[in-house]
Amino acid sequence: MTRKSLDDQGVSGTLGSVFLIVVVVAGMAVLMVAVISQPHPQNVPAMTAEVITTPTSLALRHDGGDTLNVGDFKILADGLDKTNAFNVQSAWSIGQTLTYAGYDPQHPPRTIEIVYTGGGASQVIEQLWVPTPAVTPTTNTSP
Question: Domain count of the chain?
């Protein structure tokens, strides 16, 4: 019968502990690199807008915030891209009004969203509810 050396058991236990420590440290290093190396958040413009409705038209007025450049945003009416119907020239700045060319007073949109699309991302920066246009009463002038 052969006797096991006590030194062999001590070496294997020490090597196992060192190996376990190396694996844990390497895993933590990979995790830290993944957390620290996240891309910087994109600068998304901020703005406010107002919906202006009449019985025959709908317009959006830029009430404040950043200027939006053509190609960097979309205007969605009830989820459908209607940017071209608003006829944006080059940029939309504070105080400017965009008129909706495709407005149908019989079927007005319920919501309008202004979506920032610059930098490859897509983020809603303003969501507006469209008020029901006021109906002007007609008077009967015939005798």
Answer: 1
